[in-house]
Design a protein that fits this description.
two-stranded antiparallel ribbon; globular; 80 residues; disordered N terminus; binds iron/sulfur cluster; Alpha-Beta Plaits
Length: 80
């Protein structure tokens, strides 16, 4: 296993554009690993709670969260 990978798995980065997010939580329900959360996130300029991935190390980079987001606020990047 090399640095930055977990076995044959992926290293994922989940980025939420906080100014696009409106706190609808659709991404929270979409994540099969229950990693997306609104808890503990800052409010954005519009006053919405914003989503974040609570544990990128556990993320499988499926991008369900990004696909589900109606505001295209989420970007999922993965290193194979
Ligand atoms: S990419 Fe998949 S596993 Fe990772 S946070 Fe999004 S929905 Fe969850
Ligand atoms: S689905 Fe998009 S707009 Fe809704 S909480 Fe998640 S990141 Fe924010």
């Amino acid at each position: 296993m090399s640095v930055g990978t977990r076995g044959d798995y992926v290293k994922a980065t989940v980025t939420v554009n906080e100014e696009l997010c409106k706190g609808c939580a659709l991404c929270v329900g979409a994540c099969p690993k229950a990693l997306m959360t609104l808890d503990g996130s800052p409010l954005n300029a519009k006053g919405y709670k914003t989503a974040r991935c609570a544990d990128e190390a556990a993320c499988i980079a499926c991008a369900f969260c990004a696909v589900m987001c109606p505001d295209s606020a989420i970007t999922v990047e993965k290193e194979v």
